[in-house]
Amino acid sequence: MTPIEVVCGIISSNDKIFIARRKQGKSMAGKWEFPGGKREAGESDIQALKRELREEFGMAVDILNRFGSNFHDYENFSIKLTAYNCEFIGASFNLTDHDKYAWVFPNDLIKFEFASADLPFVKLISENLQ
Predict the structure, then answer these.
(1) Number of domains in the chain
(2) N or C: which end of the chain has fewer CB within 10 A?
(3) What CATH number is given to the structural domain containing 40?
């Protein structure tokens, strides 16, 4: 099974990280995630991440560097999730695919129920705090 290419942002502002919860009716409803989405044909990771954040949150960010990537097999599909460290610029927070968002301190990420593909990034962030 060829994995779906997905990008997400580890978005920081004032020592907190932005996370969002998938709304009912969406895949993985109720799970928290580092926001982003699928890369479309012909797009770079950076272009896809900027587009997805603009579409889903009316958000602008500075993309600083690649944080990491991992592969995850869900029941009916596989994804390659690549995360980028981002600095928050601004947003309208007009939610389309999510019903809630939060700015949380990195050590509080473990208190949220994340989508499985995001968990390795939660772990990496937590390990870097020690």
Answers:
(1) 1
(2) C
(3) 3.90.79.10
Rounded Cα distance between 50 and 67, Å, is 16
Beta bridge partners of 71: 80
74, amino acid identity: Y
Give this prediction's pTM: 0.94
Closest CA to 8 of 71, 81, 73: 81
Answer whether 3's CB lies under 8 Å from 80's CB: yes
> In which domain, by residue range, is 35 found?
4-128
Q: Which of 127, 124, 128, 108 is nearest to 8 (CA)?
A: 124
For the four alpha carbons of 124, 20, 114 and 111, in that order, the dihedral sign comes to: positive
Confidence of residue 126 (pLDDT cuts 50, 70, 90): confident
